[in-house]
Amino acid sequence: MTSLFFSGRAALCGALALLACASVLAQPDSYPSKPITLVVAYPPGGSTDLTGRTLGAELSKKLGVPVIIENVGGAGGAIGAQKVANAAPDGYTLLAGASNEIAISRLVSGAVKYDLKDFTPIGLIAAQPMVLVASQKSGVKTVAQFISLVKQNPGKYSYGSSGVGTALHLAGEMLKDQGGLFMTHIPYRGVAPLANDLLGNNIDFGVFVLSSGLPHIRSGKVVALGTTEAKRSPMTAEIPALAETPKLKGMDINIWFALMGPARLPDPVVTKLRKALNESLQTADLRKKLEDSGSTVSPLNVDMPKFLSQETVKYKRIVDFAKIKE
Q: 3-class SS at 77?
């Protein structure tokens, strides 16, 4: 009986020792010790996917482990974002996300159950403006002509975006608010069908992410009227900013991309990820790839809580003005 007691006690001690060892191995000091999954909440090929893949390649070099891109599309990015919000807070599931799913979706859709508090913001990656374009059939070549035409014909003209509640939709509504314009929003199921209708002269105006619109602008198939940030994009200095027009001087909205983790990430893990992100953003290869796509690489060490709070206030104002709800 005594031998059985000591045998059981020894087994218990051994098990506890193994658990203690496993706990030590799982500590943030050993992070990362296995591949990291970087979720992109859209199908391959778009601006968020390009940003995520470009960053993932650099993070892999800096952290010394593979960074695997997982495309989880659907619901305007909300499905992929929810996956990261639900992930274990260990730093092995991260989000290369855009403003749509991080900050906008929850303001317009009751189906979105996550909030900013469900994420740990690691840092901004890059941003790019959107661009207002006109079809060839419209005959509009300048912002002044656009404003004059729409004001003289309230309700006659429409603009298209890639969907309800997207940053492109919000940019269009901000334009209406700033300019006192009455136009109808036509939501498309993505950029491709919007482009098809603009190129086919089935709709007069549309809003693109700059990287998506550039091929059509440079081919002469649509006319670029203006970009949506306060100043011209250094990537397209030939396209005026909408804010250069006095009636639209408050126009300042873009698409931004950020690296996010689930809430409650340990501080040492966050520190390592921020260091790797900052080092990645300074590499020539990453900067060239993102700048060639129309993005401006973000400055280092942005105050993310302050930034996200300011962006949310801006988006909520537009959502309330346009009464956007899904």
A: helix
Of the candidates 50, 58, 29, 28, the one whose C-alpha atom is nearest the C-alpha of residue 120 is 28
Measured CA to CA, the distance from residue 259 to residue 15 in angstroms comes to 38
What pLDDT was estimated at residue 28? 61
Helices 284-292 and 47-63, axial angle in degrees (round to 10): 180
Those residues whose C-beta lies under 8 Å from the C-beta of residue 222, and which sit 6 or more positions away, are 133, 134, 135, 136, 198, 199, 206, 213, 216
Q: pLDDT digits over 232-249, tens only?
A: 998 899 999 999 999 999
Residue type, 99: S
* E strand residue ranges, 136-212: 158-161, 184-187, 205-209
Tens of pLDDT, residues 106-116: 999 999 999 99
User: Would strands 205-209 and 119-135 be described as parallel, antiparallel, or unpaired?
Assistant: antiparallel
Q: State CA 311 to chain mean position distance.
A: 12
Q: E strands of 164-314, at which residues? A: 184-187, 205-209, 222-227, 254-262, 296-297
Q: What are phi and psi of 200, to 5 degrees?
A: -90, 5
* Ordered structural domains, the chain, with CATH: 34-127+255-322 (3.40.190.150), 129-248 (3.40.190.10)
